[in-house]
Amino acid sequence: MIRLMSSPQRRLLRLLPGLGSMALLPMPSFAAVTDLDYVEAGIKPPSAPHTFYESVDGRRYAKAGLMLYGFGAVTDDLNFGSSYSIDGAAPTQEDPAWWEAVIQPALTAGWNTGAGTFFTGLQGSYALTRGNRYGDAAGATPGHPEHARLDRAYVGWRSGSLWADSLGKDALTLSFGDQKFIFGDGFLVGDGYTDMGRHAAYYIGPSESFEDTAILSLDSHGWHADVFHLEQQQDLGGGQEETLVNGTNLDYTWGDRAKVGAAYLHTYASDIATREGMDVYNLRAKGKPLTSVPGLALGGQWVYETNSEQGIDDTGWYLQATYTFHDTPWRPQVLYRHAEFSERYDTLFYDFAGGWGNWFMGEIVGEYMLFNSNLDIDMVKASFKPRDDLEAGLIGYRFRYHDRAAAGADDRDFAREMNLYADWTITDTFFVSAIYAVAFPGGG
User: Fold this and answer.
1) Terminal C-alpha separation, the chain
2) Which of 8, 54, 207, 294 is buried deepest, with most CB atoms within 10 A?
3) How high is the mean pLDDT of the chain?
4) Residue 113, C-beta contacts closer than 8 angstroms, at least 6 positions apart
5) How far apart are CA 350 and CA 357, in angstroms?
6) Across residues 2-21, what is the average pLDDT?
7) 87 has a pLDDT exceeding 70
8) Pair 236, 197: CB distance under 8 Å
9) How many C-beta atoms surround the C-beta of residue 223 within 10 A?
10) Among candidates 325, 335, 437, 418, which has minimal Cα distance to 380?
């Protein structure tokens, strides 16, 4: 049950104490977020592995791909067994079950002119939701919706051998259009669209691209830099919400030991009042600091958001430590993370990237309830790999309000949650995942 980059809106408050589900997905498993070979920053083309045209000199090509996704879930005791819905939004059944399906054809092409390579890509998406008449457990996709849309359509240019002696091959990339763009493991920016309302497949979240982007990227001698313009044009069923962003991102990878980064964003226009004119600062680092303890990895990020006109002065951050027993059978790994998000922290365009718990922390609370705002989270994860193609693990969460009074609650303790998961890579193109989740309400 791998999630494909879908960011729930905080207005969709539901309580989901029990969830079991499975998905059949044609995609590789993700590395842990503290690994240095994580999801690299920059634009992400659609999957198109099959070449159907290539010129004799190899300078022109066209490729195609087709991805199929399936997901199903059953739940018990929605709203912790209560019969009412939260905040007046669409109700759901007490024990809803639903399923989703997605088909995504893709096409990419390129032409090496000798003065760089021009490239383009298209990806369509057809999705549907069936089962519970309100769609998913949050009621985000009511009425059994199905839709087709063009998710990615872009053109671009890479520098190829130009400046290869000084900057390196393909050091510069310039692209325009509807694209997926990510940096910093998707903690802040990674998903440009949320599938909800009349758009089906809320959980799979097949739509990922930002619209009308302009992105200039540099990759040279361990450095990666982006200067970008992004537009999120979100159809929530009841109307359109648009957010326009300019920003910069910078990463440096120090061999196989560490990666550090920083970013700045300015949301200069938005239909969401708190985002209008907001400045966002991001610092991050992760790596393996001790050569004498090669199994230890540390990581963390910090985000500061400010908007004086809206009274925004908020932070979100996490620190985590991971230890991998490389020389032990089944390669067990343990992780501890502490994360805090202040009362009006805005997750912006956060993403599912890097594996379970990144950054939808909790398959119940993180998917359908609190969405990383006014929240403190403790997360403990233990996993093992009995075979190269199989990983299983257990994740425990404790969720507390960052500010009890701001939440209107009598207690900070919101809930505790357990997630038991298994990921099985059957072939290079066929991936199955299953999870059982249960949440226990606290006094808050």
Assistant:
1) 29
2) 207
3) 88
4) 59
5) 12
6) 42
7) no
8) yes
9) 14
10) 335
Give per-residue pLDDT as tens, 291-344: 899 999 999 999 999 999 999 999 999 999 999 998 899 999 999 999 999 999
Q: How many residues does the chain have?
A: 444
Six-digit token string for 266: 């300015």
pLDDT digits (tens, 9 = 90+) for 353-388: 878 999 999 999 998 888 899 999 999 999 999 999
Cβ within 8 Å of residue 278, ≥6 positions away: 266, 267, 270, 305, 306, 307, 310, 312, 346
Residue 372 φ/ψ region, left for φ over 0, alpha for ψ in the -120 to 50 degree band, beta for the rest: left
Q: Which residue has the tokens 């519970």?
A: 132
Distance CA 4, CA 291 (A): 35
Amino acid at 144: H
Q: Does residue 79 carry a pLDDT above 90?
A: no
Residue pair 125/146 in contact by the 8 Å Cβ criterion: no
Radius of gyration of the chain (CA): 22
d(Cα 380, Cα 3) in Å, to the nearest integer?
A: 20
For residues 202 and 139, give the distance between their C-alpha atoms in angstroms, rounded to a whole number: 10
C-alpha to C-alpha distance for 178 and 152, rounded to whole angstroms: 5
At 368, list the tokens: 């359908």
What mean pLDDT comes out for the span 182-197? Answer: 92
